[in-house]
Amino acid sequence: MNVRRTQDGPPPRRRLDGKAGVVAALVGVAVVGGATAAVASMVHGARQRLEDPRAAAQAVAIADDAEVAYCTPAFKVVLQRVLNACGLVGAEQRRGCQPADVKTFASIGDEDFNALFAPLKDRGAVILFDENMDTLDDGAKALLEERWQDRKGARYFFVVARASKDGTVEGNRALSHKRANSVMFHLKQATQDPDLDKQIGLLWLGSEFAQLSKSYCDWPNSRADKRCTPEAINRSAFVSWVDCRL
Amino acid sequence: MKAPDVTRLATAAGAAATLGLVFAAYSTYDYAAQLDRQLHAVHCSFVPGAPAPADGDNPCKTALFSAYSAVLRASWWGGVPISLFAVGAFGFLLAFAVYLALARGRPARWAHAFFAAAALGPLGASLVMGTISLTRLHVLCKLCVGIYVSSAALAAAAIAAWRLVAGDRGEPAAGAPPSQGAARAAPSRHEMLRVLSWAGALGVATLLPAIVYVALLPDYRPFLEKCGKLATAAEPHGSLLKLPTARPTRAVTLFEDPLCPTCKAFHERLVDEGVFEKLDVTLVMFPLDSECNWMVDRALHPGACTMAKAVLCGRADRARAILEWSYEQQDDLARAGKQGADALLAKLRERWGTDLLTCVGAKTTAAQLNQHLHFAANNHIPVSTPQMFLGDRRICDEDTDLGMKYTLAQLAPEVLP
Asked: What is the 3-state secondary structure (H, E, C) of A130-149?
């Protein structure tokens, strides 16, 4: 190496090199050590937040059935009682509802009971029957299937069958029951849905129950092309999905 | 020797190392913040310290949550972020640049050669990561670009300084024949030891932050099984989809939305990690679009219901292809979804033909999608995507991204390559 030595120490290059080395080593220790300390602090902070996550608790929506505005407390009380009475809740098999029990389990006047379903006007439909008959015509089947397919987020499908005041109380009650079953059987046949029994709540109301007023003729029905009378609208089954959680 | 030039180059290299250190530190900070398993914004700016956007995704977030941002993921939750090694390496190179600058062109022999060789490390890593960003992630993260540019500048300055010194001293340049200047350039034993000690210091500096990071990591095992189970594993109508994979060994149920960017990233992670082909996948469509999903009050991903129906229409043979196509084309499809149904249907017709379109519009398909959504509702899962259930056990959201490989190593090691 072409380095000229001085008389009393290392050559200038080595001295410079040595000083630079010391400074650089200090810088290196400071930078790498500082960075390592910062990393340790970051991990420690994350560990503390992990063990005490209170500050970061975030509300997360949970998937569930639909819940819309008409699901008032009163409506849900009736709905719950209907579902219990019909065996849809807490039982493996549907057992159907006894019409005589409706007033009891609903704990509500029958006019008010009818009024509860008013918000379902656009969601549901009225399936009309011929006098003293329980068979579904083509229009009824089509409307029923259309409404069934329009399930959206609903869990329960209500069928509220009725009979007009013509005839005896017992006869009308039996006829109402048959109409409800016609709806049920058709849906079973048309959809082959294995979950059907857990979804459909059947009610059959005899003529002793409050009749629907003519205003219900404005609701979607299976005979839109025919004249709707107060008697005709009560020879019916009201069907609708119900968008309420229980 | 042109000492002032060499000093200037060493100073420039030091500046580049400092910049690289700052970018790597921010990247590490963002990564370490995720260790608490909560949601955090991710920095993404060429200006170090610029505030991280609190909402939405950005390329830095994509890179951070990708399979390439860390190593040893199966051993530690989240793995060891690559930026940690960069922090240590840049720290060492900064100190070495200080040494070269202070030595004013008269440092120890081989110092410049060593510095140039060491500076190739970050440059090589940057080239590899940059290529992955462009070819696999299709994004360029600004923090990462900052590191790439710093690495390139550092390497350029270090190599230039070395060439200047080597030319002056007659030390062999890279690629030069061994005989050239060999007599004068052969290192003594002392010089060899010195170079080895520098290399050792570089190794220690590079590994130290990572060792400390790993040593302080919490034990994540107790957290892995705390996110619930499927209450009802079976869908009564049998409407859920099975996706074909090469070697299905473990049953999983995936809730996905074809237009959800996180689902796309999750799917790519599963594929990139070599996990997807070993899963026996049951797919549940869970579009976050109010057109069909009553559980959201607005369309978070407009058009997702249509795309979900398209996947359902693919049945067992084409469903996976349609889902992966929707992920590949997600930006285009999301734009089309915002324009309206017609624009989205046109894209579907163009790629998959009119038969698929007819199926997408069928009432039976809408009913099937509705059954998928009711399956989610019956199981009371969180309204978010993606979600993964290993058997009936829900994998926590945090464990589907950074912690995925670690979680699978703990709960289903057979699906790891």
From this structure: CCCCCCCCHHHHHHHHHHHH
Cα dist from B100 to A24, B67, B109, B253, whole Å: 9, 37, 11, 58
CA distance B49 to B29: 11
Which of B406, B91, B253 has its CA nearest to residue A32?
B91
Query: Mind listing the pLDDT tens digit for each residue in B286-321?
Result: 999 999 999 999 999 999 999 999 999 999 899 999
Report the alpha-carbon distance of residue B148 to residue B129 in Å, rounded.
Answer: 9
**Which H or E run includes B405?**
helix B404-411
Residue identified by tokens 């991710």 is B42
Test A31 with B21 for CB contact under 8 angstroms.
yes
Ramachandran category for residue B366: left, alpha or beta (phi over 0 → left; psi -120 to 50 → alpha): alpha
> Is B130:B59 a contact under the CB 8 Å cutoff?
no
Q: Which of A31, A157, A196, A243 to mutate to test the interface with B (most CBs of B within 10 A)?
A: A31
Q: Which residue has the tokens 């009971």?
A: A113
With H, G, I as helix, E, B as strand and everything else as coil, classify residue B233.
coil
ipTM score: 0.83
Q: Look over chain A and give the mean of its residue pLDDT values, rounded to a whole number.
A: 82
Q: For residue B26, what are the contacts with CB-CB under 8 A and spacing of at least 6? A: B43, B48, B49, B143
Structure confidence at residue A56 (pLDDT): 53
Determine whether the interchain pair A32/B205 forms a contact, defined as Cβ–Cβ distance below 8 Å: yes
The answer to whether the beta carbons of residues A61 and B382 sit under 8 Å apart is: yes
Please tell me the distance from the alpha carbon of residue B359 to that of residue B57, in angstroms, as a whole number: 33
Helix (H, G, I), strand (E, B) or coil at A88: coil
- Range from A72-76, B66-70, B206-210 carrying the lowest mean pLDDT: A72-76
Which whole-number Å values give the CA distances from A47 to B186, B208, B238, B241, in the listed order? 51, 20, 43, 39
Substitution target in A19, A43, A197 with the highest count of B β-carbons within 10 Å is A43
Structure tokens at B74: 């199966």
Prediction pTM value: 0.81
Q: Tell me: pLDDT of B172 over 80.
A: no
Query: What class has domain A73-242?
Result: alpha beta
pLDDT above 80 for A110: no
Instruction: Report the chain A residue with the minimal C-alpha distance to residue B291.
Output: A152
